Amino acid sequence: MISVSEALQAVCAESRPRPAEQAEDIASDVDSPPHDKALVDGYAVQSADVSNPPVLLKILEQVTAGEVPQYAVRAGTATRIMTGAPIPDGADVVVMVEDTEVLEAGAAVRIQRTVGPGANLLRQGVSMRRGDRVLSAGCQLRPMEIGLLAEVGRASVRVRPSPRLAVLATGDELVDCATRPGAGQIRNSNGPMLVALAQQAGAVPTDLGVARDNEPDLRRHIQLGLQSDVLVLSGGVSAGVLDLTPRVLADLGVHCVFHKVNLKPGKPLWFGVRRDASSSCLVFGLPGNPVSSLVCFELFVRPAIAKLKEQTPEPALRRGVLAADFRQKGDRLVYHPAVIRDEHSGAEITLLSWKGSSDLRTLVDANALAIFPPGDRQYRAGETIDVHLLAP
Ligand code: AMP
Ligand code: MG
Q1: pLDDT tens per residue, range 226-284
Q2: What's the gap in Å between 242 CA and the centre of ligand 2?
Q3: Does residue 186 line the site of ligand 1, with CB under 6 A?
Q4: Cα-flanking dihedrals φ and ψ of residue 312, to 5°?
Q5: 171 alpha carbon to ligand 1 midpoint, in Å?
Q6: What distance in Å separates the CA atoms of residue 178 and residue 193, rounded to the nearest whole number?
Q7: Is residue 245 left, alpha or beta, with left meaning phi > 0 and alpha meaning psi from -120 to 50?
Q8: How close is the Cα of 235 to the center of ligand 1, in Å?
């Protein structure tokens, strides 16, 4: 059985981003700012006029943002100007309105304070020049990139599509969320949870519903799922008589990279790849229990999605001190649902008393998974340990 870090390495090695050729560099079609512009409300003047205040200047006109000055500013004159408005020719400084006083029924202004040349204005094109490349193909479009695209007039751009991820639950016992389970049945909670996780991780999910535990139905559903960049299955990868998934995957040409990881919960994890000339699909067979599914998604599927998006997968690790004693047993690496909170003394970790890997009810209280290395050991309150943060 391989370790979590070996498994993660194998997953990352197989997660190759699609070529960015569809994406494009973006050039600006404007100067920014598009004109010399006022940064404050005040008066555009010649700096030589205001070097020795107070001084009385004749007001030529008023220019607000969106208007264009009609007159050039000359010695002895000033233009009333608002933030964002173009600076009139001849002016090289803006005096803030707070440092002025209007006189002669609005015909003149007294400047009370001196300001150096260039004060309170921004020169045309200092942020970017028309023709400058402002975004590179492959960069991530965060809110500020979207704003910049709008500034340079790009309502639509060619991008590398986000990875498509299909979610398929397996199990004869599963019924849809809208159905009341009959005897022996449970609702399919993994399907909606994995769709939500995929969305949160930046993939575009499709919910393929439930495949029953027989080869024809599994085969039909899996064939559909293999058209995506990633197929996430839940259930059917343990050692039960109806755990048929690995066999069906092999029949459909999915090459098994590993099966079983030294991890708790999540040991039965199956990972494989199908590649042909034009496409490839990463296939994760997650254990059916919801907490195991979630842990495996966090540890392996989320980093794979990041790599497909050409982002650097960052494990969300934090350290903190245990709030209470804890006895750890067993030979697997453990991820235990926990709450990490900031106290005066630092980050404190409370382990949740979970009832095993089907216990979603307890998992909703968790914001982290506390990490315990394999081996029997008594942990003491106050000891420092690592946690893997769950995305909010
Ligand atoms: P399996 O991995 O198929 O052996 O399933 C392990 C456990 O997880 C069983 O108790 C299943 O009933 C449960 N399980 C499997 N799939 C789901 C699912 N989609 N939602 C909730 N529980 C599931
Ligand atoms: Mg099953």
Answers
A1: 999 999 999 999 988 889 999 999 999 999 999 999 999 999 999 999 998 888 999 99
A2: 7
A3: yes
A4: -85, 120
A5: 7
A6: 15
A7: alpha
A8: 5
